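Hi C.,

You asked whether I'd gotten around to modeling the 318-residue construct. I have! Everything is below, sequence then structure, no commentary in between.
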Amino acid sequence: MRISRMLALGATIMVLAGACSSGGSTSAPSTASVTIKVGSDGFYESQLMAEIYAQALEAKGYKIDRTGLGLGTRKVTAAALESGQIDLKPEYIGSGLAYYQGTATGDPAQNQQALQQILNGKGGGITVLDYSPAADQNAFVVTQDTSTKDSLTSLDQVAAITPPLKFGVATDCSTNPVCAQALKDSYGIDVSNALPLSACDQPMVDAIKAGTVDVGELCSTQPDIAQNNWVVLADPKHTQPADNIAPLVRNDYLSKLGSDADAFKKILNDVSAAMDTATLTELGKEVSVDNKDITVVAKAWLQSKGLVPGGSAAPASS
């Protein structure tokens, strides 16, 4: 009987040990075993935010596939997210909403809500996580010389200038409702013959500097604007929407995480909450002007906020 009891006790211990082992492995698919495919638009700021989100997840044990970083325009990345080619991408929610329905507002909360309603029916469902205080609107800029010569400070003055100003616009401007159509409808500006360039990137900066274009489409956080003392043309008819940044993630990926989905969302939401427009502009300068590696810039900022190991939280104003 003693032997039987010992055998029974041993079996019980093995069962308990097995239960503990399997209990520990239930969370494994949410991190080590379930790779998340992170993507971004082609310009540096989108890639930077995607890298920041990726590193924050990596620090918590998630495996990251970065193949989708820098895929291209929103048309490309939206299709990639809907098809499952990527699972996660940072989005500028105003422009993201306009991409789907043609219009957006100056209210980020309204933009987020409306975008979520649309994305519920895309690709099996896509979730818009919390939007960041950091925002980056489309900006049409001119040099100080052009502004002075033509007494130009606002988009509503452009159409009356002769000869017509040469525009440089985003490569997707002709199909982007907040670009060509908005400029035509609101200000009578025809950009059908404009030079298509990577909008928030060095080619547009170079074209403005060289005088190849008189008006160039940049991002409002682009450090080149302040560095070159360029003038951002006012948009009195508010054609450009509130473009706060938020991560978009596929619902089927969240489903794979099970009970860990909330913890996953919190990692990304905490990152978004810690970013602001001034900081995003400064980080963009480090990448686009100082030519620092995006991965290095991302890591240093995350560490400064205590979001990944290796640093301590910095003051909110940093």
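If it helps when you're writing up: Residues 138-232 form a domain with the D-Maltodextrin-Binding Protein; domain 2 fold (CATH 3.40.190.120).

Thanks,
B.
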